Amino acid sequence: MKHAISVKVNGATYRRDVEPRLLLVHYLREALGLTGTHIGCDTTNCGACTVLMNGLAVKSCTVLAVQADGADIVTVEGLAQNGKLHPIQEGFWEEHGLQCGFCTPGMMLTAVQILERTPDPSDEEIRHGLDGNLCRCTGYQHIVNSVRYAARKMKEESLPAIPQPAAAAESGTGKEGR
Amino acid sequence: MAVTKLFGARIKRREDPRLIAGKASYTDDIKLAGLLHAVIVRSPHAHARITRIDVASARQTPGVVAVFTGADLTGKVGPLPCAWLIPNSELKTPAHPAIAVDRVRYVGDAVAVVVADDRYSARDGAELVQVEYEPLPVVTDAEQAVRPGAPLLHDEVPDNVTFRWKLSGGDAGAAFGQAARVIKQRFVNQRLIANPIETRAAVAQYRADTGELTLWVTSQNPHIHRVILSGVLGIPEHKFRVISPEVGGGFGSKIFVYPDEAIAAFCARELGRPVKWVEDRRENYLVTAHGRDHITEVELAVQQDGTLLGLRGRTYANLGAYVSTAAPGIPTILHGLMLSGCYRLPAVDYEVVGVLTNTTPVDAYRGAGRPEATFIVERLMDLAAAELGIDPIEIRRRNFIRADQFPFTTCTGLSYDSGDYEQALQMAMQMVDYPAWRARQRGPTEGKYIGIGASTYVEICGLGPSPVAGAVGFQGGLWGSAVIRVHPTGKVNVFMGEKPHGQGEETTFAQIVADELGVPIDDIQVVHGDTAVTPMGWGTYGSRTTAVGGGATTVAARKIVDKAQKIAAHMLEAAERDIRFESGRFFVDGAPGRAKTFQEVALQAYLAWSLPTGMEPGLEASAFYDPPNFTYPFGTHLCAVEVDAETGGVEIKQYVAVDDCGKAINPLIVDGQVHGGITQGLAQALYEAAVYDEQGQLLSGSMMDYVVPKASQVPLYATARTETPSPHHPLGVKGVGETGTIASTAAVANAVMDALRPFGIRHLDMPLTAGRIWQAIQDARQTKRGAKP
Fold it and tell me: Which residues of chain A are within 8 Å of residue B679 when distances are taken between CB atoms?
């Protein structure tokens, strides 16, 4: 039996009927077509699927879509606002914080949470904060630099960590659940 | 050399905008109308006979479209071939069916595939495939597998030995006869799992009307995938398109041609609908090729002053249940030949035995043979230094190939192109303040023991040249390729034969071409990964893409300039020899006002209203660059650790890497490659191990059980470079993708073992976990009762 859920993603509200077992990450990727959120493991270790749910970084492979009913989600696609990169995206680009890019969306969303909680984090705080996200390419050093870059930028320009999308237009409803 | 505006510039990457926006398209992101999903049913037994498969209930699962077993593939999907047939080794490559028919040989061997409308239904169906097995005896360890009476995996391999490869150079017998000391040690290079964060995946689409197959696959070498799968599936190359879209890391594990992509293609062809298969992480651990897994007994002959005389030994290389695509070449060519390290070693006598066991196939993993060799050589240097009472840095210096000895031919026949090992060592020594660490080590311990480890390494990279590849049995060429197409407006496409998957060549190759053609970098787009549009190329591995692909790109760009210069001369009514080309302008020597821009020339090349007599219109060039030799990056990594004797925990206090990868095109990207490489190598030293139980179950079968290092588990790295250009490369580059991994394992292991010297501990096998170190300290204290260090 399918359940009707309504989820706000990157400012737009989506209504879909979903199976109770559908994972949030599959809902985002396959029902909504937001493939920027990736799947890297099946044990909640790698963090590639990290999104913000009601302002908290969650691993969307470990959340059921039905649990997100009524929630406010931010994915990598929602980081940039009005065509302007989020400071964390800018940081990753400027500081070579990514190579293959697969862990990057999840890594950036975790970083946003770190910066939301600790606007001026030490290297140690950044590394500890990123421990739920695995990167196999960079050795993390440039990722740490990227987060510091974003912290500086956000301070200089008084920018919020969590993007504040303008109330987006209502998206269409769909019956397909998967 | 052309204008060097961008070569050497630390510019940010051109691949990043799509990646940081979440707009990149990886294989699992491909969506096609009517797409079906496949889930592969895998053996839970390491060795068993299949007595019965019942797919009836799986077929009735809602959403399930089809179920196929090995019998369904027979005659339609050939066995997966091995593509590195090392000569003079009695190599046997037993058949590797895509889906097992009557016998499974490792946990994860495919036994059936379920195809359904969506991935959840496919998984439901897979749960209901009933397979009855008759378990057979299991062997997982290479040394045990070669003993008489060991369980045998393949009828055609009567002793589980796939090859015996012998290597000799110089007179090892004489060397050991005159040695003042012989250092003996058994080394284990433990099995590792590559762990790209993107698992493997494939999407296959077949058109019955034309017989064309398009396969999107997570590949480091789409052209190799096409060549091999063309044979496996019986689809000719001209109707077979392989697209390797965005690839989320590979580290070697996406070189190989696996059963899974052949199965997906088979399903698409049978069903007439596109089929997607995506590996989950557990499958990735079970079926994607593992790395390393060598057991080595080795001895080193030295003089009293530390001068190396000879090395001899044997490595048992565990290759798993089947001989994977490149597997035989890794422990032999890429390992055995590098056992000289960066030293004047006069004699080698060595044997590598390739062994089949009931485990996941083993093949290249970042560094591929060279980290194993470096680990052996560099550990031996430290053991020799300790036995002879020589400082470990000093013994290296005494044996270095000197800068004036290049090109240097090793006793086993490699010709190292260039190097200055002493210079890199000196720079690293200054960066760590070696004497200060030694002083601190001699100071009060308070339960914390300091160790300093060095790894002075050299690696064979930039794989080609092709005649050598052929001589060592690689079933392909090893050149690089590029097509450069200049459009009428002077905009440029570069089509690469190789396949970057995180290394940033969309940026570095654009840097090369911008300089060579004198056009703005924004006018250049680099294209890769699609066999329908890119020239045949052998792929990205072995730190080869910048060396051979960059070589091809440079040669192609120079062909463009050559033709453009002729056109410019014609347009300017001057002799070609009087034309100069600088910063994108062709002008008459001595009359800089008489000039045509590159863009004006490009337009004329296509208008063709006035071209030199006999010249074809258009402005594009292709190049297949077969290097005259390999490249040999080198360097020194130094590591200082502190071991807590009460917990066995290791803390890396300082890590310094001085690498020489020849000329660096983009230092930012080079640093990134080095950081990532070091992290994988130090993880072998401290954290990672793929572990099987006696029944062949992978105990380290998930990310919860296998330690891929986290951000807080790795230190800050200080990197620096010396630049010794490769003398035979048009740009002087050598390659940097693997340096860190090749160097760091030995540096970290040597540092930890140095810290444990006060306990009389000579050697411990990796990973050097807190538990293992703590236990060794307890054992040592027991042995030396009362003699507190």
Answer: 138-140
